[in-house]
Design goal:
- It is found in: Cell projection, Neuron projection; Postsynaptic cell membrane.
- Belongs to the G-protein coupled receptor 3 family.
- One of its GO terms (molecular function) is G protein-coupled receptor activity.
- By secondary structure, the protein is α+β, with helices and mostly antiparallel strands.
- It is built from 16 helices and 21 strands.
- The protein folds into three domains: 241 residues, Beta-Lactamase; 58 residues, no CATH class; 239 residues.
- Helix 13 packs antiparallel against helix 14 and helix 14 packs antiparallel against helix 15.
- The protein is rod-shaped, with a radius of gyration of 49 Å.
């Protein structure tokens, strides 16, 4: 119990405003300066040095009751002894005050002070006891005049009207002899409780311990015989609580407030610290009733400027001293951490800064890819009548170029630092580009597969228009998925850290939807791998089916490997390596695919331009075999040819 209260008192001293000393934070600082001045000046006997602030006394009620019980005891004694204490009571009175301070309690001192000649040998008498290493006792009236009007702990109760104080009656039977009691006697005396007493302002008790203390006084009363029943004041019994070793808290109210602190109480010293804006106040226990009993630690986001010292904080006493002396040589400021740091110990960076050189090189290469894709589309348009181009279905070649372009555009979205909008946009060009590019490839392969699996001389109507109609649902499913992802599972910006340097960088948090997208791509590619297996022996114009097969297998194997590497290793190394890995994946998905599909066609185109007679002969032969809209499977030689209105032979 005692330890708990000591902890409470060491953490805070609760005050409420009662005078001009304490109606503002500046007044509280003035009060602290006053405390220091009084302690450093020469002391003369008395208790006139008062700090006019009042505190919440509830935590000390237990100790105040010691004074109440003492006062009631002495009131009974005076009633029995005709209103005086004789000389033989001196030892008893000293024993009472010594007993009040004995033991492990917060009571520093106790006094019994009586009116003139109540103690018959002397006009004034005030046995007082206090403790340090030992319990001491002496007559305080020899040190100063406690009846002076400036002695709050005595004068306040002395001038109060006690005439209407309640009386209590005790019935006592003393012992008459060895076998019987005497006749029962009624004793009527005034009795006080804790509300009748008085808590003083904190004061400096010069001569009674030379410390700052607060005193609770309880009145000693007796019933006067003239007129009968009139209650008169005869003195006081006190207990003293030492404030010198009770810590005050100058830190802000919201900082370091224990749960048991009464939120309605107003601690006038709270918020009177002098810590700078970059620091936070932390109270220091054990310094007692003194100004500057705190340390100024750096706030989060700042670091201590002196790296060589052990204690990374400015002492509050030094901060206060610099203000009092107008010393500007030290600013007692912490230094702001590098950008992005929540906490730090020096100026080391916390953010990963993009390597602009690497990213610009990648963007230049992507621009080159876009230029080449555009040239490819132009060549398709210019030479669409040549068999090498027409056999590959120009419509689907355009769609492949569109898909490749969208895949390349995803690199531009990934270039800047992610934002909420960019994270939402980011999946769109990638998934739509993949759907267009590889959807076109897979449908062309599926057409060969559908024709090749026919076991009779049967017409198969699979024109480009029919294939385009089958591409629409694939694109539609991808679009719906992206819309739902953007609305229901909106990607957000997340924070990652590098493994080696612990630097922070921003990335898009795609949640579980990312795995749904990967699953959809996997299903599409696995279907393509199956189709490639089916048509592995099917002949086609310019070996296009074989190159499509290589492109799909290449994407399934290499891209899967790159995704695993990216998730397990690369993402922990920082955004630049992630960006570079994304570019490598782009080469797998776009460059390899475009090269495998178009280089053989352009090689055949060049050959056709060098030998126009051969191209004309092949076109005439193909036209003679064509029908208006039907594909024919010639079982005898397993020659697969799909014919449309625009194409004599389409793979």
């Amino acid at each position: 119990m005692i330890t708990d209260i000591q902890i409470q008192l060491s953490v805070f001293l609760l005050f409420t405003v009662t005078s001009t000393y304490a109606n503002s934070a500046q007044d509280a600082l003035t009060a602290l300066a006053y405390v220091q001045r009084v302690e450093t000046e020469n002391c003369t006997g008395g208790t006139n040095e008062v700090l006019p602030v009042q505190f919440s006394q509830d935590v000390w009620s237990e100790y105040a009751n010691v004074a109440v019980r003492t006062a009631n005891l002495l009131s009974k004694s005076l009633t029995l002894n005709g209103g005086t204490f004789s000389a033989d009571k001196e030892s008893f009175l000293f024993d009472v005050v010594r007993n009040n301070v004995a033991g492990n309690t917060l009571i520093f001192g106790s006094a019994i002070a009586v009116e003139d000649w109540v103690y018959t040998p002397y006009q004034t008498f005030c046995p007082y006891s206090y403790k340090d290493e030992f319990v001491h006792a002496f007559d305080l009236s020899l040190s100063y005049d406690y009846m002076d009007n400036g002695t709050e702990w005595y004068h306040t109760l002395r001038v109060k009207d006690w005439s209407n104080s309640p009386l209590t009656k005790d019935k006592v039977k003393y012992r008459l002899n060895s076998t019987h009691h005497a006749i029962e006697i009624d004793f009527v005396q005034p009795t006080v409780d804790i509300a009748d007493g008085h808590w003083t302002y904190p004061y400096y008790d010069c001569g009674g311990g030379n410390i700052w203390m607060v005193t609770y006084s309880s009145p000693i009363l007796m019933v006067d015989s003239s007129p009968p029943g009139n209650v008169i004041f005869k003195g006081i019994a006190t207990i003293d609580i030492e404030l010198t070793n009770i810590d005050i808290n100058q830190c802000d109210p919201e900082e370091f407030t224990p749960e048991y602190v009464d939120e309605g109480a107003d601690d006038i010293f709270r918020g009177t610290h002098s810590c700078r804006e970059s620091t936070k106040c932390v109270p220091v226990s054990g310094l007692g009733l003194t100004r500057g009993a705190y340390d100024c630690y750096c706030k989060d986001g700042y670091y201590f400027p002196h790296s060589s010292v052990t204690k990374k904080a400015f002492e509050g006493l030094m901060v206060e001293l610099s203000i009092n002396t107008n010393d500007t040589s030290l600013d007692f400021e912490c230094i702001r951490c590098a950008e992005g740091c929540d906490t730090c110990v020096d100026d080391s960076p916390c953010l990963y800064y993009h390597n602009i050189a690497i990213r610009l090189v990648v963007l230049v290469l992507v621009l080159v890819m876009l230029v080449l894709i555009a040239l490819t589309a132009i060549l398709i348009r210019v030479y669409r009548e040549y068999r090498a181009i027409r056999s590959g279905s120009p419509m689907f070649l355009y769609i492949m170029c569109l898909g490749a372009t969208l895949l390349c555009l995803s690199m531009f979205i990934a270039y800047p630092e992610p934002t909420g909008i960019l994270c939402i946009i980011k999946p769109w060009p990638h998934l739509m580009g993949f759907t267009f590019a590889y959807g076109a490839l897979l449908l062309k392969t599926w057409r060969v597969s559908a024709i090749f699996r026919v076991k009779s001389a049967k017409r198969v109507n699979l024109t480009d228009k029919v294939l385009a109609q089958r591409l629409i649902p694939i694109v539609g499913v991808t679009t719906v998925f992206l819309v739902v992802w953007s609305v229901a599972g909106t990607p957000t910006v997340m924070e990652r850290r590098t493994d080696t340097t612990d630097l922070k960088w921003k990335d898009c948090d795609d949640g579980l939807w990312k795995y749904g997208a990967l699953g959809g791509k996997a299903v599409l590619l696995l279907w393509g791998a199956y189709l490639c297996h089916v048509v592995r022996k099917a002949p086609s114009n310019f070996n296009e089916s074989k190159y499509i097969t290589w492109a799909i297998y290449n994407n399934v194997i290499l891209d899967s490997f790159m995704i695993i590497i990216k998730q397990l290793i690369v993402v922990k190394q920082g955004p630049d390596l992630v960006y570079l890995m994304q570019f490598i994946q782009l080469q797998i998905s776009v460059t390899f695919m475009m090269c495998l599909i178009f280089i053989p066609k352009f090689a055949a185109l060049k050959h056709a331009m060098n030998y126009p007679e051969q191209e004309k002969s092949l076109s005439t032969q193909g036209a003679s075999q064509a029908t208006s809209t039907v594909g024919v499977l010639q079982i005898s030689n397993k020659d697969v040819a799909v014919q449309t209105q625009e194409e004599p032979s389409v793979a």
